[in-house]
Amino acid sequence: MGESTLDEDTRSNPTIVTKHSVAIPEDQQKFRRSERAWNWELLVDLFFPHEQSPKRNEYAKTFLRELKDEGEIGSRKLNRFDEWGHEKGLSNLKNNILPKLRRLGVIKYDYKEFRGQGDSDKGREKIVRPAKSFTSILDSMANGWAAYESSARQE
User: Fold this and answer.
1) Does residue 54 fall inside a structural domain?
2) pTM of the prediction?
3) Side-chain half-sphere CA neighbours of 86 within 13 A
4) What is the C-alpha separation between 60 and 97, in angstroms, rounded?
């Protein structure tokens, strides 16, 4: 049999977070359910748990910190992610982190046409921006669950 791709720590963790899931861990100290608002870094810990993928967690936080400071990041700057202090992090960012953040509605892609002086100097640049859809999704989930709870108590 071939080797498993999961290490022993991941195996012992009851929740394996895949590219299509988000799980709220039972860590009562870190994830206080009574807090009115969690900071964005705590949310990243839900998307990319440090225990399961420390590099993805670190790269996602680095990327989102930069996006927060800049407001948007173009593909030219994005392609220099390795220069942000994360050698070999670009492929992880492009293949794993950005697609998941986009699926969750945390970021969105816009495209800007550009033209240079030569024929080869034209194309589209991808612009990554924060998206508002994640907030809407969470509001809809919360409202739906509140309605469910309300109707369940009345029976």
Assistant:
1) yes
2) 0.73
3) 20
4) 6
Residue 95 lies inside a defined structural domain of this protein: yes
All residue ranges of the chain with pLDDT < 50 are 1-7, 10-11
- Domain around 66: 38-154
- Supply 78's token pair: 């994005």
CATH number at residue 81: 1.10.10
Distance between CA atoms of residues 45 and 64, nearest Å: 12
Find out whether 60 and 95 touch, Cβ atoms under 8 Å: no
Give the pair of three-digit tokens for residue 35. 């807090």
14 domain residue, yes or no: no
pLDDT tens digit sequence for 93-102 = 999 999 999 9
Report how far residue 59's alpha carbon sits from residue 130's, in angstroms, rounded to the nearest whole number.
16
What was the pLDDT predicted at 98? 95
Place of tokens 């739906």: 144
All residues at 6 or more sequence positions from 99 whose CB lies less than 8 Å from its CB, including other chains: 19
Backbone phi, then psi, for 107, in 5-degree steps?
-125, 165
Per the structure, the count of domains in the chain is 1
